[in-house]
Amino acid sequence: MSALGQPVEIAEIDSALRALWEEDNAATRASLTNFAIYSECDDCLEANTDVIAGITREHACRAILIASRPDAPKRSVKAWITAHCQLSGGQKSVCSEQVTFDLGQPSASLIRNIVFAHLDSDLPLVLWWQGAFTPVFDDRLYSLIDRLLIDSSTWENPAKEFETLATARDDSTSRFLLYDLTWSRLLPYRLATAGLFDHPAAASALSKVSALTITHPKNSRTEAAFLLAWLTTRSSWDASSCKASIKEDEKNEMTVHFTTPEGALTVTPTRDDGFLKSTVTLGRLTAEQIYPAGPSDTASIVARQLQSGGAHADYFETIVPHALKIIAT
Amino acid sequence: MNPFREDLATRTAPDPCTIVIFGATGDLTHRKLIPGLYNLLHDGELPPTTRIVAFARREKTDEGFRQELEESNKKYSRQSHNDRLWQTFSQQIEYHQSTFEDKEGFSRLADRLKAYREKDGTVGNVLFYLSTAPDYFDDILIALKESGLAKAPKNAWARVIVEKPFGTDLPTAQHLNQVVNDTFEEADTYRIDHYLGKETAQNIMVLRFANAIFEPLWNNQHIDHIQITCAENMGMTGGRGAYYDTAGALRDMVQNHLLQLVSLIAMEPPADLSADGVRDAKVNVFKSLRHWVGAEEVGKNVVRAQYTAGSVDGIDAVGYRQEDRVPEDSKTEAYVALRCFVDSWRWDGVPFYIRVGKQLPKKATEISIHFNEAPSVLFHKSANQQVRKNVLVIRIQPDEGVSLRMLSKVPGPAVRMEPVKMDFRYKTSFGKASPEAYERLILDAMAGDATLFARRDEVEHAWRFIDEIEKAWHQSDSPPPVAEYPAGSWGPKEADTLLEQDGRVWRRL
Description:
Mean pLDDT of chain A: 86
Number of domains of chain A: 2
Distance between the termini of chain A: 50 Å
Largest sheet of chain B: 9 strands, mixed
Oligomer: heterodimer
């Protein structure tokens, strides 16, 4: 049996799942959501299985993994089932089930049917669409999604993909809340940056910021653009009073640096121990605060996003247009 | 308002402040307060420039005290102990040696707080936490008033958190409230009852008012009775007998924690979710509690008991009167069971049975709502009478969650029914550990949100109810007897009789 679990015929999935639970000693099969991952990537299934294993540690769900290979030499359908069980008191006590599909040359209708036929009834559907949108992402699919996860930093052409999303969001049949994992990853930086100006002495420095520089690792330009877009849209700076920019960092770190006439305010990662350090140096005042840098693994980021719920406030309407402009420059 | 906070806030943001803990060398500080504050920092919830002053009588150095706290944090913190984070956190903790009567000690405290303000550029918010025995509350509050510390600097606030017990009866509670309110405004007074900070206690309002299916059934038309059980499988370990014998189960648990749970279960929908909106609704429950007056009424509706020698968790246990620091002739109850009525339109005729005790078979706090039976014309012969009622159980601790018992047909040719349970468990559904109650409550106090704290009138109404029972026990010519139960059992027979008289039984936990 592979990491994907036990191979099954599509028509036998439900009965195979029932048999799986009957032979297992798991005390509880739990599910809060249907969590589907769709990718068009040849070797993503095992990596996504690891992600599901991580997510189910804190978020019980019915997981549906779909790997679609439109360029496969022939039409094919393969399926597997498995369970992710968490240990409690030395026993497997809580289990989530996973159904995996590998589809060669699938039609859009096959993919939709695969999703719809294997949902746990009454529970919300969370779909993580990995990569760029394809014609499969149409109204008959997205009208059933409750929450849509994307990761805009993986897109080659963000402007085009956000346009597809805008069309879907404007469709009266759609109801999904949108979560961008790129935006989720920035939460610790946003909290630490906001924390700089919680300091009573720093609050007045906000209007005097003359420069804002965000440095970023080589592959994190989109993240940096989003962070800069958020900071500039939240503040009252204009281009003549504050020079705001992003640039690639030689040390491969994301940092935020505000310059004011009285001093500087910075957010930097600490070395190796998973925290962000915010430092306020204004005149005689020096203050430091430590913030959790948040998880770096995808499973934890997704699990955290699933638990926090709620829509990303202002993200799509305000932050995205600004970020796209920054990315385009 | 910090513009970067606008879309980040999931709750009212706590203000930066200095937390002054009186009685900081005590158990609560080591087990709950410091680990709680550390966890808040770990989760990024603690505002910058938060400082902690540990005010206590014993001679200690800052560094020595920090080391003690570090050991406790390693043991009790919900989050794993991180040396780097602890280093940052502990530098914000300073030890302040003084007695609670020493004016000079409070004067030095004022100087210390002023120095923080100047060094940090803060406005000078201060949260005083009274974590001492209640005997010291007067001294501390008077000293805070006389030293001017209770009066916040301009644009700042000064608040006080008071730990239970909020008095030992109505007059002492009124006195305490008077002293507190002579020093702090009621709006700046936070009476902490950690039960209200528990996720499951907070979930009671969500369960009732966010789900359309329960509230239509939540009344005397559909509910037969309600049981609240708070069982502990411990006796008087760690010298606890000395305090406990002066309080007893009724004052130690019922007056605060359990009546708070009654109020959450019985309250009408509040006008809004503001602190006073919720607390007004709870106070109405306390006002509607039927008082038991005189030995006869108390004897009929309240059972008090002490445990005798027995066995708990496979270990021999001594009787209550043989416990360390408990007088041999003690009449203090280690167990109490009572029948209550909330005399309101909604709850007319619905008994609330409460039981709480030490040295019971297991540790569990839960509320069970026992619904009326379905009309018996169809299946009345098919099910055991005792399990025919639907029961909704709200488990407060441990294994927090909600379950619903219902009847189901047993597969087979005959119509045979058995009870089955639908069970929601926080741990399996949400995985993540719930924050400690103290974390939530401290953060609320820093944010000025008093919703989960007891208001003065709630406390005083609860004492009015309790005092009548205490009076019958201790001041009447023919007080109701103190019953007995073997340690490790589910309480005295008299408690079972209390329900049997009404044709009911205690729920088996």
